[in-house]
Amino acid sequence: MRLKGIHHLAMATRDMEGTIRFWRDLLGMRLVGGLGKKGYKLYFFEICPQNYVVFFEWPNVEPVAEKDHGIPVSGPMVFDHVSFAVEDDESLCALREALDAGGFWVSDVIDHGIIHSIYSFDPNGIPIEFSAAVAGVDLGADPRLVDTAPAPAALEGPEPVAGTWPKSRRRSAQSPAGDGFDPECLIFPGEGEELVSGNKKNRFT
Question: I want to staple 145 with a disulfide (CB 3.0 to 4.6 A). Which of 15, 34, 83, 101 is the partner?
Answer without folding.
Answer: 34
